[in-house]
Amino acid sequence: MVAEARGPPVHRSVEVLASRLRRRQIVGSRATALETLLVLRQVISKARFSNLEQLVTIIRDSGRRLVDAQPKEHSVGNTVRKVLHHIREEVHAATGSTGPAKTTSFSIAKFVLQGQPRRQVAVQKSEVKATLRENDPDDPDSFARSLKPVLMEAIQDVLDELETVYDNISKNAKDHIHSDEIILTLGMSKTVEHFLKAAAHVRNYSVIVAETAPSYDGREMAKSLSSAGISTFLVPDSSIFALMSRVNKVILGAHVILANGGMFAKSGSLMAATAARAHSTPVVVCAGQFKVTPLWNLYHEYGALDFGNPSDVLGFENGDLVDKVDVVNPYYDYVQPELIVAYITNDGDHPPSSIYRLLKETYDDEDNEL
Amino acid sequence: MTSKSASAGKEKLIDEEEEVLQAVILADSFNKRFRPLTTRKPRCLLPICNAPLLDWTFESLALAGVQEVFVICRSHAELVKDAIKESKWSKPGSGMKIVPIMTAKETFSPGDALRDVYTRGLVTTDFVLVMGDLVSNIRIDEVVRVHKERRRTNKDAIMTMVVKETGVKHRTRPRGESSVFVLDPETSECLHYEHVQGYPKKKSVNIPREIFEAHPEVDIRYDLLDCSIDICSVEVPSLFQDNFDYLDIRRDFVHGILTSDLLMKNIYCYIAEEGYAARVQDTRSYDAISKDILQRWTFPLVPDDNHPGRHIYEHTRGNRYIAKDNTVVLARTCNIGTNTLIGSSTKVSENATLIASVIGQNCTIGAGTTITNSYIFEDTVIGANCTIEQSIIGSGVQIKDGSHVQKGSLIADGVVIGPNARLEPFERLSTKREETETEDDDDDDSDVEEVESNQDSIDKSSLGPDTNAIVWPRDPPDEEDDEEGPENYKNQRFMRLGDNASDLDVSDEDEDSSSEEESSTEDEDDYHELASLSELSDASIHVPALSGLMADAEFRTEVTQSLERAFTEGHSVDNAAVELKTLRMASNVPLKRVKEAVVSAIVEKIPLIEGDPTAQRKEIYGVISRWGELINKIGGVDPVETVSILQAHCATSPRMPLFGQILAALYQEDIVEEDDIRAWHALPDSKGENRKEGIETDNFQKCWMIGSHMIQQFDAQESDTDSDESSEEEQPRRPAPQGAPQSKESSDDDEDDSSDSTEGVDGGESESPSEGISTSGTSSTRQSTNTSEDEDESEETDE
User: What Pfam families does the annotation carry (chain A) (predicted)?
Assistant: First the structure.
C-alpha cells in the first residue's frame, strides 16, 4: 500500500503473487522461487527506466512487497537478490564499467569485503558498450530498450538454474553414497528424493525414512523411493536414535540455509541431527543454492519456526480438550551449523563454515536488506 | 504439505478458467445478541483479533478463489458500504469484485434477504452463501467442485452445507443453537435436519419413517458444527421466493425442503476433514473463535501471517502476539500471559497483567490493572488498578482507576465509567444517542429508546461519578419466553460470554441428555427396521403430539372431500396424489393417516351390490384398477401396511365381506404382492391379537382367515406352476379368492365361498379341480390352518 502511494504503481502480478504467498496457496522454496522469477520477468519487461538506479528500485519495490507478504519463504527474497546481482553484472558488463575495484589484488584483510573471486573473469561484452548510455536526455528509453534483451537473458539464466537444480545437485550423488550403505532421511524433500534416486542408478544401498509426524511426509517419501527400486524402511520418528548406530549417513533437506551455516529444516531434523552427532554419523544436507540466504539471526526469532495448525497434532473434533490444551506445531527446526558436515548444492559442496563465501559470490552486499 | 498446496494452486487456476465463482454475504445478523455493542455499527464491523469480521469473511472467501461477492447490508448499510470502499478489497489486484447491495429495512430475516437476492437477479450460477461473521480457512472451492459434480448427475441437489466434526462439548460449537443432522453415510445426503436449542431443551428428535425405508443405513449426528457455509444452486433464492414464510435458512428452509414431499429437492452435507470454519453468532462464540485464532486453529489466517487487517504481529512463545512496528510500549514489570494479542501503539503500564486477552490499537492499560479473557477494541483507556474479566469493551471507552468489570459485561463505544465503578456481572452499558442520530433511525432502535426511557429507575451510583453510561436491563424480561425461537431469554444465556448457565441444568446433564438423545434416536433406528415388518399399528409413535385428534378428524374429512372430487371429476391419479400431498403438508399429519384416509375412501367408493357376486366383483375391480395406484402414489410405498390398513378399515365397515375380493383386486393390480400378503399374515396384529373382544376383533379374525386361505391358494398355485404350467398361462390363473357378497355368514362358509370364487376366476364355471376343493370343505380348512402354521414357521425362519 505504501509503495503504491509513493511511486510506480505496483505491478498487478506482484499483488496477485503476494496474496497467494500470504494465503499459503503457494508454498515450498523452489515453487516460490520460480513464481517470483516469473513475476520479476513481467515486472522488468513492463518497467520504464532510464538508468540502473531506477531499475533496481523497481525490482526492489516489488521484491519487498513479496517478502513482506511471506517473510518465511526466504527463497522469494533470495531470488530477488540474485536477479539484482545478475542485472548489475550485466549492466556493468554492457556499459564497460567493471564495478567497484574488482581487479585489486587479494589480501586477507579485504577478503570478506571483496568476495566474488570466482566471478572475476566476467565476459566483457565490448560490442554493446558503445550504444549503451544511462540517462540519455534525448531518448530516456534508450537505456531500457537496449538493455532489456540482456536482462531477459539474465533472468532466463536464473530460471534455467532453478529448473535444473535437482539434476545438478544429484550429479555427484554417487560420490556421496557408497554401496551397501544405510542412509537415514526424513520428510519429503524433492531434492533429497532426486539425489537418492540418482545414486540408486549406480549404487545398491538402503534408506531408512522416518515418517515425520505430524505431516507424515515420510510415508510419501518412502513410497516414492521404494517405487524407484531402492530398499526402503519406514520407521516412526521415535526410533531414529535407536537406529542411528547402524546408519552410515544422514541426508536431510533444507528449507533455508542461513549465512552462519545453520539451517531451517522440516521439524524433526534437529532430533535426527543431534542423534547423528551422538553417534558421530555425518549429516549431509542437499539443497539448491537458491535456499542460501544472507540472513543469519533468524533463530533468535521464535516465530521463524513457522507454527502451523494445531489440528495436525490434535484433531479439532476432540471437543473440550481443545479448550484445555495449548498445542504447538512448529513446521521447522533450526539446526545449528555444528551439527552439519556439508551442504551439497548445485554450486558445489560446501562445509557450513564457507556458506558465507557462497553468499558473497551470489548476492550483492547492498541487497541484504531489501 | 508442499506438493499438496502446489496442486491446490493449480486447481485454483483451473477453476478460474471455468467460470466466475460468486458469493453472497449476508452482512446482517438479524438478531440482537451483541447489543449494545451493535447500536452504532453492525456486527460484521466489530473487530475480532483487531480486524473487522467482514474482512475475515472476505479473506475466507478469497482463500477459496471467489471472484465476485455481493454483500447484502441492512442495518448501518452506509457504514458497511464505506468500510468496503476503504478496504484493501476494493483496490485493483485484490482479485475480488465486491458489490454492496443495500436491502430494504423491511428485511427481517435471512429468508427476506434471499428473496431480495432473487428479485434483483444477482446470482447467475452456483454460489457460496455465507454470513458476514464467518472465520474460515476451509477450501470452499473444493466444496464447490464436489457440489457441481453432484449437480451434473442430480439436478435436484440444490445445496451443500459445510459442517465440521467437533464433538458435542467443543467450545466453538454454539450451545444455544445446534442441530441434529441425519445423513446418508454413503452419499452424505442430508436426510433430515432438526434444530436444537439450549432452552427449552429438546428431549427427542422426530425422524420421518420414510427415511428409514429409503435408506438402509443412516448416521444421526449431534457432534457437527454447522459452519454456515452453503453452496447453493440458483434455485435456492427462487425457492425462498416461492415459500414466502421461510425465514431462517436452517430452521425453515433446510427443514422445509427436506420434509416436503412436493419439492423433491436434495440437500447434501460436506463434512470438512481439514480446515476451520465457524461463525461469530453470539458473544460466547466471539470468545471461542478469538481463542481459536490465537491458538492458530485458523492457520494460515493467523495474526502473524495473513492478518486480514494487514497488521503485522510478531508471534512469540506461548502464542503472544505483539504488533511488530515497534510502537507497543510494554513496561518492564508488566505481565503478558499466553494467548494474548496486543495492537500497535498500545501502552501497558507497570505491573499490569494481561491474560488470554485481545487489546486493540492505541489503548492504554494503567498500572496494576488485571485483564483476563477480555476483548478490548481500539482507543480505549483503562486506568490503574482495574480488573476486567470475560468482557468485551468497545472502542474509545474510558474505564477510570479502580474499577471492576465483572464477567460477561459488554461496554459499548464511548462509554466512560469510574473511578471506582463496580459493575455487576453481565452488565450492558452504552452511551446516550446523540440527537442528530435519531433522525434517520427507525423501529430498529425502539429498544434503545426504551432503555433510555427507563434510566431513571436504575441506580447508577455503582458506575462511578464520571459516568455517561446508560444501563441496559439487567433482569430477564417479565414475560417469560415471549419468543418461540432461539432468541428467548433463557436460550440467549447459552450464547452469552462468560455465562455457564449452570442453573439451566446444563453442564453435567448436558452430556447425559445429549447421549440420551443419541441413544434414543438409535433406538428409534432399530425400532424402525422392525417397524416396517412388524408392529405397524404402533408406527404412529412418530406422530408429533401437536397434531391432535381435532386436526386429525378435520384432515380426514378434507381427504374424503378431495377424493370425492377426484372420483366425480375423474382426475388422473397423479393429480389426485399431488393434491393429497399438499393436503398432508398443510395439516402436518404423518403419512399413515393419509394412507388410512385414502384406503377407506377407496373402499367406501365401491358400491355394494347385494346378491350378485359377479357384478360386485366387477365393481371392485373397476374401482381398484382405476384408483388403487393412488395408495402408492401418495408416497411411502409399504404394501404390508396397506393390507393392514385395509383390514382395519374393513373390520369396522359394512364392506367387511368385500375384504377378500378387494385384496385380490389389489393383488391383481400389483399393488400388493404375494410376499406382502404373507408378511401381513404373519403379523401378530393381523390376527387380531392384543385387541379387545368384540365384533371388530371378530371381523379382524375373519379377514385374517381370508388371508390364510389366499396364502393356501398361493401355495397350491406354486406347486401347480412347478408341475405343469408356464408362467404365461399363470397370468390369467392368478388366484383371486374373493369374499362372499353375503354379509352374515360363518367363517367356514366364508371358506367355501372363497373356494367357489376361486373356481370362478379359474375360468371354468364349475370345473373339477376346484370342485374337489369345495366339496372337501372341512379338510381344506384343516389343511389351510396347517399351511398357515407352516407359513408362520417359514416366516419366522425368514426373519
Answer: IF-2B (PF01008)
Could you give all domains of chain B from N- to C-terminal order, each with its CATH number? 22-279 (3.90.550.10), 312-433+458-476+486-499 (2.160.10.10), 547-713 (1.25.40.180)
The pLDDT of residue A246 is above 90: yes
Residues A57-77: what's their mean pLDDT? Answer: 90
Q: Give the Cα separation of A87 and A80 in Å (integer).
A: 11
pLDDT on residue B8: 44
A302 CB neighbours in chain B (<8 A) are: 315-317
Pick the CATH number of A177-362 from 3.40.120.10, 3.40.50.10470, 1.20.58.100, 3.40.50.300: 3.40.50.10470
Instruction: Assess whether the previous peptide bond of B300 is cis (omega < 30° from 0).
Output: yes
Q: What is the mean pLDDT of residues A283-289?
A: 94
Q: Is A323 on the interface with B (CB under 8 A)?
A: yes
Question: Domain A9-97+131-163: which CATH class?
Answer: mainly alpha
- CB contacts < 8 A, A to B, total 115
Give the pLDDT confidence of B354-397 residue by residue, as tens digits. Answer: 999 999 999 999 999 999 999 999 999 999 999 999 999 999 99
Residues 6+ apart with CB under 8 A from B149: none
Widest CA span in chain B:
114
Interface test with B, best of A322, A325, A327, A331 (most B CBs within 10 A): A322
Q: CB count, 10 Å around CB of B48?
A: 20
Listing DSSP states for B400-428 in one string gives: -TT-EE-TT-EE-TT-EE-SS-BPPTT-E
A25, A28, A316 member nearest B166 (Cβ): A316
pLDDT in tens, B695-745: 667 777 777 788 788 888 878 776 665 554 444 444 444 444 444 444 444
More confident residue, B576 or B546: B576
With an 8 Å Cβ cutoff, are A28 and B2 in contact? yes
Taking CB atoms and an 8 Å limit, are B1 and A27 in contact across chains? yes
Nearest Cα residue in chain B from A71: B305
- Across the interface, whether the CB atoms of B6 and A28 are under 8 A apart is answered yes
Chain A contact for B211, CB < 8 A?
no
Residue among B393, B327, B334 nearest B359 (CA): B393
Q: Inter-chain contact B166–A215, Cβ cutoff 8 Å?
A: no
Alpha-carbon distances, residue B60 vs B97, B138, B300, B308 (angstroms) = 14, 8, 10, 9
- Looking at chain A, the domain(s) classified CATH 1.20.120.420 span 9-97+131-163
Name the band, by pLDDT with cuts 50, 70 and 90, for residue B504: low
What mean pLDDT comes out for the span A154-170?
91
C-alpha B594 chain-centroid distance: 24
Chain A, residues 40-69, CB within 8 A of chain B, namely 68
Query: Predicted ipTM?
Result: 0.84
**Residues A188, B3: C-beta atoms closer than 8 Å:** yes
B420 interfacial to chain A (CB closer than 8 Å): no
Selected residue of A19, A298, A327 to mutate for chain B interface (largest B Cβ count, 10 A): A19
Over residues A310-333, the pLDDT tens digits come to 888 888 877 777 778 888 889 999
- Nearest chain B residue to A311, by CA: B297
pLDDT value for B758: 41
Helix (H, G, I), strand (E, B) or coil at A351: coil
DSSP, collapsed to helix, strand or coil, labels residue B271 as strand
Number of neighbouring beta carbons within 10 Å of residue B567: 16
Q: What is the DSSP annotation of B732-799?
A: GG-------S-SS--HHHHHHHHHHHHHHHTSSSS-HHHHHHHHTHHHHHHHHHHHHHHHHHHHHHH-
